[in-house]
Amino acid sequence: MTADAKTPSSPTTAAFFAQAAISFAIALVSLTIGIAVLPVDPWVRAFLAVGALYTVTAAFTLAKVVRDRQEDTTVARRVDRARVEKLLAEHDPFAPNAL
Q1: Which of 24, 65, 92, 99 has the fewest beta carbons closer than 10 A?
Q2: Which residues form the YiaAB two helix domain (predicted)?
């Protein structure tokens, strides 16, 4: 098996997960506080809050779609690799050709 055929495994460490979660929480809290103390009318605050909520949900959706696409690609590669390995295992180069 070649190095290209192996799928790289990149498990997320606990430290990286914690950093990402804390970073997301700080950004979301900062944005919420910024919108709350903004010296504008309440309808402007509501508009900005809805926009921020939409941005957050769109980011989660995009992350899920990217992850799902990567998982689908990985599974397809595994299936293709298994088919090739099966064909190679069943192939007998010394068998007479049957026409």
Answers
A1: 99
A2: 16-68
Q: Rounded distance, CA 90 to CA 81, Å?
A: 14
DSSP per-residue codes, 17-73: HHHHHHHHHHHHHHHHHHHHH-SS-HHHHHHHHHHHHHHHHHHHHHHHHHHHHHHHH
Q: Is 23 a member of any domain?
A: yes
Four-CA torsion 81, 86, 88, 90, nearest 10 degrees: -170
Report if residue 77 sits inside a domain. Answer: yes
Split into its structural domains, the chain has a count of 1
98 belongs to a structural domain: no
Domain with 63 in it: 14-90
Q: Is the whole model's pTM more than 0.70, yes or no?
A: no
Q: Is 29 exposed, middle or buried (0-12, 13-18, 19+ CB in 10 A)?
A: exposed
Does 38 fall in a domain? Answer: yes
